[in-house]
Design brief:
Number of domains: 2
CATH topology of the largest domain: Immunoglobulin-like
Largest sheet: 4 strands, antiparallel
Oligomer: single chain
Structural class: alpha+beta
Distance between the termini: 98 Å
Radius of gyration: 28 Å
Shape: rod-shaped
Helix content: 25-40%
Order of helices and strands: HEEEEEEEEEE
Amino acid sequence: MASMATSEMIFFIATLILSISVVGVLGGQTAHLALGMQNSAQGTSSQIQTNFEIINDPSSIPYQNGYVFYIKNTGEAGIYFTNTTVNVLINGTLLSGSEVSMISPGNSGEIMPSQVGEIVVNLTIPSGYNEITVSLANGLSKNMEFQI
């Protein structure tokens, strides 16, 4: 009788230890999953609050010491508008340095909601149909086909 009670006690303790281990592993994985979801939600929230449009007439791009493209902030948050936070591609070629300049209202380096900034492209663009792609640091991008 005593040996039977002892073996049942050992099995009971082993079962408790195994159950506690499983709960610990699952709890850790759940916390890891929750943290990942929180980080993903913050990134998505940033993209939802940030939005812009290229508001040029595609058939008439103005030229003032370079081709001028107008960017309007249609989102709820400000957009940092500098050469390091905005990428510009013309026909798939990334522009850098003196090829492109950003002009924000008041030269603040930021476009607030409903404001319009200018991208000046100092590059010879071939006549005909071309495409501009503007990408922000958070991954949001817009493109427009235009004619020169």
